[in-house]
Amino acid sequence: MSAPMSAPASAGTTHAAVVRSFDAPPRYEAVPLPEPSAEHEITVDVLAAGLHPRVRSAADGSHYTSEGTLPLVPGIDGVGRAPDGELLYFVLPGTAFGSMAERTVADRRRALVLPAGTDPIAVAAGMNPGMSSWVALRRRAGLRPGQDVLVLGATGGAGRLAVQIARALGAGRVIGAGRDAERLKLLPGLGADETVSLEGADGDVARRLGAAAADVDVVLDYLWGRPAQQAMPALARARADRAEPLAWIQIGAVAGADIALPSALLRAANLRIMGSGQGSVGAAAILAELPELAERISAGDLAVDPLAMPLAEVERAWSAPVEPGRRVVLTP
Ligand SMILES: NC(=O)c1ccc[n+]([C@@H]2O[C@H](COP(=O)([O-])OP(=O)(O)OC[C@H]3O[C@@H](n4cnc5c(N)ncnc54)[C@H](OP(=O)(O)O)[C@@H]3O)[C@@H](O)[C@H]2O)c1
């Protein structure tokens, strides 16, 4: 499936968000609609598509999978109506024609049927941030019931869901760490046993992390950068038994792309650093985890906080101030 977006509009057109420069937000335009070209491809009427950090980074060319191809229609997933009327959640491969369009082409093998009555906006808002912790806990950490989890960066959309998902998947203690005091206060209501503020002097933050989370089994790290660099030695040094495995799952990098990692730390504690994302977990394994996550979001078991905006206002949506933790969802 490919779409020559410079081609003249034809009967097969659709309105879409179109990125023509990595320096500017997408604009709402009529573009030719790609034809389904492979056996499993179908055209779907898009009902909702989430504006995730991953979508922004693809649209500004900074995502690690970006190949620098323009123009592109952003959007990596969404909820849509199939030609047979079924309501689908679909994930798109890294194509140039994404989900931020009235219609797009989806692969049925990367789609799952949602129960009638599902709120498309909640699913479009929650699946991407939710799968970050769901997949990490199931496919990377191999979380066992009763194991303790620290969520580093628990105040964002993905972090808030990570607290709920760790709880839902049977974690023992769940600790949420973040820098926004007001949003930290919301975490106990979502299932956190304890919260840790990442604000303040390095030594104070390290002491707080050590006191609250030294003996966790799993860290879900959305921050990397300086907070991870503070937290790793803080936890490793304060552990009651340093030989106990500590699975450090790298998921996001909102606080920095790099850290300095002292070699001694890897000798002094059983620290197992790994990532979870496209590549480190295969597409089939990610897809296999999605139905249960979708079910939980559809059933309202996991709280998501969407902010629906019309696709036609994509330019405004792109730069609108949105409270962290909320997810903009574009609706055609
Ligand atoms: N690997 C995967 O499978 C996967 C899947 C989905 C998402 N992700 C990644 O996960 C990350 C978080 O995604 P999201 O959807 O939760 O984004 P989000 O809703 O925008 O939340 C980001 C959070 O990070 C906080 N933050 C920013 N800088 C910080 C710092 N220096 N120290 C502490 N907190 C800081 C922000 O809160 P304040 O600014 O208020 O402190 C905000 O709450 C992104 O990097 C995203 O790409 C990865």
Give a brief outline of the structure.
This protein is of the alpha/beta class and 332 residues long.
Molecular structure report:
InterPro entries: ADH-like_C (IPR013149), GroES-like_sf (IPR011032), NAD(P)-bd_dom_sf (IPR036291), Zn-ADH-like_protein (IPR051397). This is Zinc-binding alcohol dehydrogenase family protein. It holds the Pfam family ADH_zinc_N. Residues 159-237 form the Alcohol dehydrogenase-like C-terminal domain. With 332 residues, the protein is α/β, with parallel strands linked by helices. The chain folds into two domains: 13-113 and 302-331, Medium-chain alcohol dehydrogenases, catalytic domain (Quinone Oxidoreductase, Chain A, domain 1), CATH 3.90.180; 128-275, 3-Layer(aba) Sandwich (Rossmann fold). Helices cover 31% and strands 23% of the residues. It has helices spanning 53-59, 120-141, 157-168, 181-184, 187-190, 202-213, 225-238, 263-268, 283-298, 314-319; strands at 13-18, 27-32, 41-50, 77-81, 87-91, 103-107, 111-113, 149-152, 174-178, 194-197, 218-221, 246-250, 271-275, 306-310, 327-331. Strands 3, 4, 5, 6, 7, 14 and 15 form a seven-stranded mixed sheet that branches. The chain has a six-stranded parallel sheet with strand order 10-9-8-11-12-13, sandwiched between helices. The radius of gyration is 20 Å and the shape is elongated. Bound molecules: NADP nicotinamide-adenine-dinucleotide phosphate (NAP). NADP nicotinamide-adenine-dinucleotide phosphate is lined by residues 52-54, 128-129, 132, 153, 155-159, 178-180, 198, 222-223, 227, 251-255, 276-277, 324-325.
